[in-house]
């Protein structure tokens, strides 16, 4: 058998919405074809390890289902009926519709919409340059980080943390609220290295027994939304047993005495009744932390996706402060490194053109916005035209019945620029074929590590697929706006940002595409002070001034606790909806990306609701039975899976499967709410009440998706 010999191996960066931002080595078979994808050992964080879904990227990039031609809708919205058109016709039509919307209702009736399908600074964020040039409605980007980041920043004063590679030097790694095996495999690399080389223990806190928890020495399954109770009880024990680092607290924190007094009643018994973890387990967890100076907390996003998620993130982040873990290499905490990079986005986003009086619409409320909710529209005109890049709101946005009704509006023009025919692209009037990261140039920053990384174009795109940047520049010409950013190539933008940050040039980095931006130990560990003027960590934060770029405060922020505490604002279960639904990521998907490849679909085996066997028995159901999850927002049909690794009363549905994977075309976000949690919005994806009931498959009439 003839073996294809790779022409060469090239280096690049994974662009997906994942904290790891892995460095990759890609076999290039010819100018249009890749072979195998491996992790690059040049990156000392990802260290040659990548996830299976990107290792098989050839299946995705060369999929016969890639979009390769611009398409115009010819049937009803959502019918999937399109005909091929030229790029010129497609762009002319989009420009004409945008100008028509502007003439009828003003420029704010056009809403460019995007998110994290690629994390590239050029291909993701360049859409804002067109937005600002035309004074189109702005987007308030809340769907992922708006709950977690303010919770971290509230205490620390900035979005930075210890070098994540220090996990390998730790004696106790606490992985809290993230299924790292599925969503950021590199965390496990460093944690297991610490175990192998130092005998470190691994503790995992989550709401169900994940594959990550299977590897833990200390495994704590909490009720959804009760992480702050566990955190308070752990700190109670640290103070009670004399494990709190009092000299450190005096030197580095705001109100340690008040905190200690407040925690006096937050006993393990109090917390156990709330979070479902036994008193003995809480005591043992606290003892492990209190007696292990080098304890490293890796705090994920999962436990922040609750209506009290910001408070929970802050509470968990207080533990290493009370314990004084930050003093030690291998100790402290990490959530995200966003503030360590010097990336000047002013040119790529056209920030000099920005008009602060233009309204900013919350991306998570797209259903309310498209169905004419005056509050969500901020009293302004309706949205009647959209360009959507890098996101799939018909699948990933909450409160899907509203989203579906909005996209079905006959007076709404939608252009979608995508790699595949997603659920959102199916609702579009014009569909444009997009490049993947292998087919364009871009710049990335590590979310879960400290590297700035370049991703050069490696192969030619299939058919007529075009990069986001070119589409934005071509539309700008047709819409009659100018800016230096529209005259530059993507590579020139990358080069400009690298030079402005003092990181070198594109040429310097295209063959060894990474810069280690890790700050010095003293700064990373806040030993030169936390990010407030007085250098002190805030146990009692001012919730109204956590992050200047956020909208808000909003939601029930006035009742937020002054000090770390269990905050009772969850969507409460009731007699009709006795289960709490959690919707964490699936291992073979990444949000709705990778749902289009056969291998990922086969491995995920369709949508399933994990339910405790005792609950199934009580309901007269068995493993594999068809069930409906129901609440006031709608109903979702899928199969039941008996799963003993969660607490009774909790349901877990992993992954955002395409709508068509559900018998009536309604996906899991039919059930999640789009109300804005305090203090800065976001989506409480894991804070949903439902009931579980049997349904008869013959009763379902399919709807178009
Ligand atoms: S682990 Fe994350 S960053 Fe690394 S290859 Fe997979 S998706 Fe990309």
In short:
With 705 residues, the protein is α/β, with parallel strands linked by helices. 27% of the residues lie in helices and 17% in strands.
Tell me what the structure shows.
With 705 residues, the chain is of the alpha/beta class. It has a six-stranded mixed sheet with strand order 5-4-16-15-14-6, with helices on one face. Strands 20-24-21-23-22-25 form a six-stranded mixed beta barrel. It starts with 7 loop residues before the first strand and ends in an 11-residue tail after the last strand. Helix 5 packs parallel to helix 14, helix 9 (227-240) packs across helix 13 (279-290) and helix 12 crosses helix 13 (279-290). Residues 14, 16, 18, 20-22, 50-51, 54, 185, 590 line the site of iron/sulfur cluster.
């Amino acid at each position: 058998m003839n073996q294809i010999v790779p022409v060469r191996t090239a280096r690049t960066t994974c662009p997906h919405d994942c904290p790891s931002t892995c460095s990759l080595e890609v076999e290039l078979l010819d100018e249009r074809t890749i072979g195998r994808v491996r992790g690059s050992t040049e990156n000392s964080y990802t260290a040659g390890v990548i996830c299976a879904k990107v290792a098989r990227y050839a299946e995705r990039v060369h999929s016969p289902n890639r979009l390769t031609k611009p398409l115009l809708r010819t049937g009803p919205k959502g019918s999937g009926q399109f005909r091929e058109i030229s790029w010129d016709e497609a762009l002319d039509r989009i420009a004409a519709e945008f100008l028509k919307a502007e003439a009828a209702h003003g420029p704010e009736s056009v809403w460019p919409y995007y998110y994290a399908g690629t994390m590239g600074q050029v291909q993701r964020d360049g859409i804002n340059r067109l937005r600002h040039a035309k004074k189109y409605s702005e987007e308030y980007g809340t769907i992922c980080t708006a709950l977690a980041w303010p919770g971290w920043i509230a205490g620390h004063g900035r979005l930075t943390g210890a070098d994540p590679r220090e996990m390998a030097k730790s004696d106790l790694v606490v992985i809290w609220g993230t299924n790292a095996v599925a969503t950021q495999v590199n965390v496990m690399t460093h944690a297991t290295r610490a175990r192998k080389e130092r005998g470190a223990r691994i503790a995992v806190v989550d709401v169900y027994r994940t594959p990550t928890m299977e590897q833990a020495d200390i495994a704590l399954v909490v009720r959804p939304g009760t992480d702050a109770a566990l955190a308070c009880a752990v700190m109670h024990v640290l103070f009670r047993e004399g494990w709190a680092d009092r000299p450190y607290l005096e030197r580095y924190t705001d109100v340690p005495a008040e905190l200690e007094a407040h925690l006096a009643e937050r006993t393990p018994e109090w917390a156990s009744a709330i979070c479902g973890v036994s008193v003995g387990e809480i005591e043992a967890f606290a003892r492990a932390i209190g007696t292990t100076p080098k304890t490293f907390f890796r705090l994920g996003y999962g436990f922040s996706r609750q209506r009290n998620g910001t408070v929970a993130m802050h509470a968990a982040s207080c533990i290493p402060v009370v314990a004084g873990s930050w003093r030690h290499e291998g100790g402290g905490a990490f959530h995200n490194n966003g503030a360590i990079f010097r990336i000047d986005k002013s040119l790529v986003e056209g920030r000099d053109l920005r008009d602060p009086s233009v309204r900013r619409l919350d991306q998570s409320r797209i259903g309310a916005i498209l169905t004419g909710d005056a509050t969500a529209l901020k009293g302004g005109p309706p949205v009647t035209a959209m360009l959507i890049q890098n996101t799939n709101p018909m699948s990933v946005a909450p409160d899907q019945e509203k989203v579906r009704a909005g996209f079905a509006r006959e007076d709404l023009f939608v252009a979608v620029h995508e790699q595949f025919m997603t659920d959102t692209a199916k609702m579009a009037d014009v569909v444009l074929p997009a490049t993947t990261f292998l087919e364009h140039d871009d710049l990335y920053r590590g979310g879960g590590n400290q590297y700035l990384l370049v991703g050069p174009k490696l192969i030619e795109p299939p058919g007529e697929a075009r990069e986001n940047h070119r589409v934005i520049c071509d539309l700008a010409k047709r819409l009659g706006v100018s800016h230096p950013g529209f005259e530059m190539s993507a590579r020139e933008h990358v080069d400009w940002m690298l030079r402005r940050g003092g990181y070198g040039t594109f040429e310097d980095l295209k063959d060894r595409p990474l810069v280690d931006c890790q700050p010095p130990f003293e700064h990373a560990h806040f030993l030169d002070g936390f990010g407030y003027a007085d250098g002190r960590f805030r146990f009692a934060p001012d919730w109204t001034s956590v992050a200047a770029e956020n909208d808000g405060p909003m939601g029930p922020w006035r009742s937020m606790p002054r000090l770390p505490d269990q905050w009772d604002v969850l969507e409460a279960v009731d007699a009709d909806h006795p289960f709490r639904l959690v919707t964490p990521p699936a291992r073979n998907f990444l949000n709705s990306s990778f749902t289009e490849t056969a291998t990922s679909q086969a491995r995920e085996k369709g949508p399933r609701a994990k339910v405790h066997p005792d609950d199934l028995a009580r309901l007269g159901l068995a493993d594999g039975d068809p069930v409906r999850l129901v609440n006031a927002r709608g109903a979702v049909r899928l199969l039941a899976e008996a799963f003993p690794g969660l607490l009774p009363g909790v349901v877990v549905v992993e992954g955002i499967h395409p709508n068509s994977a559900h018998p009536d075309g309604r996906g899991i976000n039919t059930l999640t709410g789009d109300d804005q949690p305090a203090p800065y919005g976001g989506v409480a994806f894991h804070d949903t009440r439902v009931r579980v009931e049997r349904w008869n498959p013959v009763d379902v009439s399919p709807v178009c998706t």
